Amino acid sequence: MKRQFSLLQIGRVAIFTLGLSVFMMVSSFAQVEHVQQLKFPPLPDFEIPVPTRVVLENGLVILMLEDHELPFVNISAKIRTGSRLEPATKVGLAQLVGRVMRSGGTTTLSGDALDDYLEGKAANIETAIGEVAGGASMSCLKEDFPDVFQVFADVLRHPSFDSEKLAIAKNQSMAGISRQNDNPDSIVGREFKKLLYGPQSPYARTPSYATMSAITRTDLLDWHQTFFQPNRIILGITGDFQQKSVMKLVKKVFADWNPGLSAADPSVQYQDANLAKVFYVEKNDMTQAKIMMGHLGVMRKNPDYYALVLANQILSGSFGARLFSNIRSKQGLAYDVQGGVGFQWDYPGIAVLSMSTKTETTGAGIEALIREARDMVENPPTNEEVAKAKSARLNSFVFSVDSPSKVLGKYLTYEYFGYSSDWLSKFKKGIEQVTTEQVREAARKHLRPEDFSILVVGPRKGTAPALARYESVQELDVTIPEPS
Q1: How far apart are CA 9 and CA 15, in angstroms?
Q2: pTM of the entire structure?
Q3: DSSP assignment string, 302-317
Q4: Can you name the residues that pair with 475 across neighbouring β-strands?
Q5: Which of 120, 158, 409, 432 is 20 to 30 A from 233, comparing alpha carbons?
Q6: Is 57 inside any structural domain?
Q7: Is residue 356 situated within a structural domain?
């Protein structure tokens, strides 16, 4: 009979399993010659709780998961918006909306007054907008929940976008633009997305002085009016509450919020093929070279998803994975090396391999990464590697669902991107059913060295000999245009 566990019990199972593993390792030390010979019992089956789902007449979706361990209530909301919907002339607008919604206060409560109110309640309210979604969160003591929740709703529905707070946020963003070339990791990540998605794609655009300067308070108000509608919001509630009383409060606060005119979001463009060549960014205040190579990846809906999860584990999922073992441990070319086929929920992620290495070993580093990608096909994963990858993923899975907030966060994401509500419960079975041949085929199909764009960031003096071997190297200009 399958045993059912609460989230608290799931955490205890995880701790027990870890302790049992340590005990067995110690007790079996004299009986085996290699750590690979140690045998561990499988995790007991457990059932992950499913949130209660309610939809109001105005389209607002509510997901609820009770947890009475501590006297707190937490809210996490997803709003159907994102910086990928910005006009090209006002990149940075969504980021400002997310910041000033909270810092600027509401039409009835200034930002500073809101700070004082929350501090007095030991509560928290935050808002932000990322690339593919907007977010709002709230946490407070159970006894304060009715009052703080109404303030939270006020922030969502009636932000004032105070002009002074907007000016502060714009100045902070301008300062960030001025420093965007300070960190080589920032440069390589930013420019690599441009190479793969296309420089004009919303997935690769970054704010500039010009686009930030063009943004006005009216733009923030219009953005809020367009995207912050009840039928575009998913509200997740977890903590010490009773569903009946919470639903009564939610309806009191949100039921009179009428949805605006329904408008289809504009399609988000990206290029479907990248240039398989070498690119270079000069940065002479470095002592190392940053190397990144790859091509577009897949979405999680791809039929090879579970096989790719295991292929990524084999390639870069642990200290014993191929990249770490071969490039760091055996060749000593890098301390930090990683790679795999990336996933996004509703657009392709990036299949990427990357590392930092001494400038004099730039060439060896490039060759090593390409060789490891080729070896996933020419020396494909073995049955033993696949078995270890399965074990690692399945044994760590429990830690991704060991708290109500983690579970609810996953269901919010599935709801937002239109994935089935049983996506989480299918993960364990999906991993278990993958065959070695499927892992090999997925690696062959989705990790293609011949299609790699290769980007190197580093000092010209140290990296020039490595780049000289290539027939064509395109140098990228990352100069920051001066503000007008």
Answers
A1: 10
A2: 0.88
A3: STTHHHHHHHHHHHHS
A4: 280
A5: 120
A6: yes
A7: yes
Give the Cβ contact number of residue 268 at 10 Å.
16
Number of neighbouring beta carbons within 10 Å of residue 164: 12
Residue that the structure tokens 């071997």 belong to: 469
Task: Report pLDDT digits (tens) over 70-127.
Answer: 999 999 999 999 999 999 999 999 999 999 999 999 999 999 999 999 999 999 999 9
CB 223 within 8 A of CB 97: yes
Instruction: Please state, as a whole number, how many other Cβ atoms lie within 10 Å of the Cβ of residue 332.
Output: 12
Q: What counts of helices (H) and strands (E) characterise the chain?
A: 17, 14
Same domain, yes or no, for 340 and 408? yes
Residue 335 belongs to some domain of the structure: yes
Range of the domain at 34: 1-47
* 447 shares its domain with 327: yes
pLDDT tens by residue, 317-372: 988 899 999 999 999 999 899 999 999 999 999 999 999 999 999 999 999 999 99
Residue 395: count of CB within 10 angstroms of its CB: 16
DSSP letter (8 states) at residue 70: S
SS3 147: helix
Alpha-carbon span 457 to 284, nearest angstrom: 9
- For the chain, give the number of residues: 484
Q: How many CA atoms lie within 13 A of 166 on its CB side?
A: 20
Q: Which two tokens stand for residue 179?
A: 């420093």
Q: How confident is the model at residue 38 (pLDDT cuts 50, 70, 90)?
A: low
* The total number of structural domains that make up the chain: 3
Q: What is the CATH number of the domain that holds 319?
A: 3.30.830.10
Answer yes or no: is 143 within a domain: yes
Specify whether 17 is located in the same domain as 106. no
